[in-house]
Amino acid sequence: MGGKGKRAGSISGRRAVSSIDLSGHKPTSSASLPAVADRRKPKYSRIVLKLSGEMLGGESGKGIDPSQIESLCSQVNELRTLHVAVAVVIGGGNIIRGDQASQSGLLHRATADYMGMLATIMNALALQDALESMGAETRVMSAIKAEEVCEPYIRRKALRHLELQRIVILAGGTGNPYFTTDTTAALRAMELKAEVLLKATKVSGVFDSDPAKNAHAVKYEHLSYMQVLRERLKVMDTTAVSLCMDNKLPIIVFSVKEHGNIRRVVMGERLGTLVDGDETGAGRGKQ
Known about the structure:
Elements: H1 4-8, E1 46-51, H2 53-56, H3 66-78, E2 85-90, H4 98-101, H5 109-133, E3 138-142, E4 151-152, H6 155-163, E5 167-171, H7 181-191, E6 196-201, E7 206-207, E8 219-224, H8 225-231, H9 238-246, E9 251-255, H10 261-267, E10 273-276, E11 283-284
Helix pairs in contact: 3-5, 7-9, 8-9
């Protein structure tokens, strides 16, 4: 194809402003990047970031809070100066949760889960517009077809977008009912060759009990996959944790309430709780 040569030369991370890719979109100019670039090398060069739908709803966890979306997207946008490949998996719990909506028996669980998948597309579009208003180049890709508003998820296309330094927002879950967006995040992290799965939350990590209800809850600094599964700790659902364990993908659970935490984690700063296969030293950290 005629434009292939131009694109191949721009995959290195810093694309020439004058080049144009095959989609017809001009690459983001360096002038629109956040003002100060961090010259240190990030620990992770390709990440999958899991955001729950409730994160978009602010304190209530419901609906879409523009100020919360701005805060989250500005943190994601900071990673562009580091030339980190970013894929975001978004949930839909701020609009509907399939498992809860089906409890009354009025809705079949599969139907409720499909409604939840549609909710993730709505959230993804909100993230896309917010990120693009900040100068980022994005693509929304969905596991269920909604071609008027986003691309279908195709692994090779997603990898290409990441190579071109586009932020890929993954919606529609796995495309199947009975699977959570946590499992989607683990699955996409494997498919897209991510080095780490980052789960952004409202709390500072994984605790032995609910810190909102127990003032003496103890935070774990390091956990093994098996410990999470044995103790049924609320990190991610067991399917997601098992998938990460089988593929040796580390998980970091941390808070995004403090601005800049996503950048800090990507740079290698120890925040939140690390979950990996190392049984040595796994256990409780300091409160």
